[in-house]
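Private note to self, pasted from the team thread so I don't lose it. Backbone tokens:
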């Protein structure tokens, strides 16, 4: 495991899991949100984002935290391991609530208010986004694909328990 992507619904704990995996393995950690967003909540040009991502993909080892569907296949092609946090909606919504108003190293600003559009995206993730993720996981089944259905499974993995 040298090139890892961590994906899942927003609020599933991708960044928390990625930080723990980085701490355990020493593999450099990169956040897609930090590559894509500016501190003023504007986005960088697509070419800038893709250039930043390509620079990471060209290195020998990495953990990349985040979904970003438009670049997911590019990351799946380059990785050796996919970790999919496939948690229920209530777990993800709880995760969003728990991080509000807290500084985070994976975002260039502090989320202080509820974003209705973002919450709708989360609520529709299982129906709208998850099928595409599952299709890519099937397409790249030659990769080491690890799917966790609960935070407890992910924590057990990080603790080295089967």
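Design output:
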């Amino acid at each position: 495991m040298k090139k890892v992507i961590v994906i899942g619904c927003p609020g599933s704990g991708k960044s928390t899991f990625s930080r723990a995996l980085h701490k355990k393995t020493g593999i450099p950690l990169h956040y897609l949100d930090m590559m894509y967003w500016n501190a003023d909540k504007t986005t960088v040009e697509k070419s800038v984002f893709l250039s930043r991502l390509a620079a990471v993909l060209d290195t020998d080892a990495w953990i990349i935290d985040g979904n970003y569907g438009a670049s997911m296949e590019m990351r799946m092609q380059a990785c050796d391991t996919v970790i999919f946090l496939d948690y229920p909606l209530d777990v993800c919504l709880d995760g969003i609530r728990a991080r509000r108003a807290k500084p985070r190293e994976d975002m260039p600003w502090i989320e202080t208010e509820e974003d209705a559009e973002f919450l709708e995206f989360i609520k529709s993730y299982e129906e709208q986004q998850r099928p595409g993720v599952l299709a890519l996981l099937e397409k790249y089944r030659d990769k080491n694909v690890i799917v966790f259905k609960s935070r407890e499974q992910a924590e057990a993995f990080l603790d080295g328990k089967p």
